[in-house]
């Protein structure tokens, strides 16, 4: 019986860590603009502007959490108990972003509904000015985070948060135009509700990804049946069992498996071929594999 494992470059190859500077710049831009939008919303009386300011406050928290998570994820473990490191900190940060987005969507919805039937006065001038500046800030942040969103669930959470806020800035300006044209402040409420729905839908989509990782499901794009079939097709492998595939954090897929072989002299060669196959075909950098001659000796666990 033999066992082997392979792994990538650790923190050096960490997807979130590579984009930390982008998160830092985006955080600085959004945090610097939040107070401006909040004050303008209070002065103008615009619910759309206030909701967008609330969402920008959520951006500050979400970006700050994402930035902190990348630092924690690459921090060296000094306890000896975190055998997988602290990479899951990024996934938890994404979960926090989901909760923030849902909270903002709920607040905006309740505030918008409470305004129905009333006739609030809304100053459209500040809506245009602040909404326009906010749009520019958000677009810059989006451009910074876009490339990292496809690689890291942590950066993706921050990207979606900023995307929703970008829509909020556009919504503020659209609401201002509609109020000027129709003279009816109801458009401020309608736009706010539309923003809330968009934010809630995006939050739910991100939540599904977070739960998939925390639930240790097979990584997206990897079919366990295909992995098992390809491993079994390696010359000398008679059977594959106890195959497990999961994601530690974005860009870090992990696998374990038992390979049954009739020739103990091929153990080293089988391990090398299997590890290379997992790395090249499925982007699994860390694989722990065991080669057995008698599968009946592998006692099944009770769960």
UniProtKB/TrEMBL annotation:
InterPro entries: Cation_efflux, Cation_efflux_CTD, Cation_efflux_CTD_sf, Cation_efflux_TM, Cation_efflux_TMD_sf, CDF/SLC30A. One of its GO terms (cellular component) is plasma membrane. Coiled coil: none annotated. Residues 24-214 form the Cation efflux protein transmembrane domain. The chain crosses the membrane at residues 23-47, 53-70, 91-113, 125-145, 157-179, 185-205. GO terms for molecular function: zinc ion transmembrane transporter activity. Keywords: Ion transport, Membrane, Transmembrane, Transmembrane helix, Transport. It comes from the Bacteria. It is found in: Membrane. This is Cobalt-zinc-cadmium efflux system protein.
